[in-house]
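I'll show a record.
***
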Amino acid sequence: MKIKRNIKTLALALILILFLPDRATAQGMPVYDNTNFISFAKSLVESAKQTSQLLKTVQFLKQQKENIEKVNNVIRQLKAVRALAKNNQRLFDIVQHDLREILNSPYIKQSEVNKVSQSFNEIIENSLESLDYIDQILSSGSLKMSDAERAAVLKEKELESKEMVVEIESKTKRYREIIAFREMQAVINGRKTTY
């Protein structure tokens, strides 16, 4: 708007200078062809209109870019939440099936049951705390964050949940190896020797 106003003001000033008779007859004043000046003024006005239209187009494109960024952030949030749900489901499945199998094994000593349970419980509690935090982030009004900040936090929590899955899988593998080793020891110790 300022550019358009400035161009119109400049065109008016030039017209006044050229058409004022006392200024036009002053000694040393150059003589201008009024038709060229009028076409120049018209082209200035037309240029101002085009500039104004260009500024509107730039503003429109900027708004569309912001809208696309918002949609991208929402999609990132949805993907992160989906991955979090999948990872937490994996954690609960491991605890529900594999932990029960480990604890019911005759090769896990009674003194080890609490230790095994506690190591799995710590991971599950951490997972539940992450889910509570995510619930706060996604609920409207509890934490004031932009979509980009929320997407970044969700991505971070997604990575943490992947690490928890890896950790619980490695613990499960380690306990199964202990059980397999003790089972093999029992077989070896229970073998009859023939000399």
The chain has a mean pLDDT of 78. The helical segments are 2-19, 21-24, 34-103, 110-138, 147-190.
